[in-house]
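re: ur question from earlier - yeah i can do the single chain one, its not a big deal. heres the input i used so u can compare w yours
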Amino acid sequence: EIFLDRISPLKNNLGAILYQLPPSLKCDPDLLESFLKNIPSGVDQVIEFRNKSWLIPEIFSILRKSKIAYCIVSMPDFPELIEITSQISYIRFHGREILYGSSYSDDELLKWAKLIKSFSQRRVERVYVYFNNDYNAYAVFNALRLQEILRDLFR
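and the output i got, formated as tokens:
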């Protein structure tokens, strides 16, 4: 609550708050439920799992019940699992081949753009996209290219 109070002047420009769990933290549904009960409401919230053990139906059910978005992740050695658990979607591109160090091709970005467009049929109101493949400024170029592709798809 203190955090949200301090950032309240940004409210009109605030996107989603992302909680990223460490790769060492294995699945613990009770811990997740306890955590989610203690986070404040009133802002879009997203959780990013870095350990594959969390990617089970029980966890997605908990997120849906709590209206917390599952962070869809594109990164090496991690499933690109598409799960919608709230009215928002949040996608993080960390680099598909090399973590933080690989660019996405136009074909890959087109695939993602079509997926993002399809989210509206699944009652998703907002989609946040974050590129974290920052080596050689890939993130900037990929974000601009995805924006162009999405503009073309939504015409």
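The mean pLDDT is 94. not sure if urs matches, ping me
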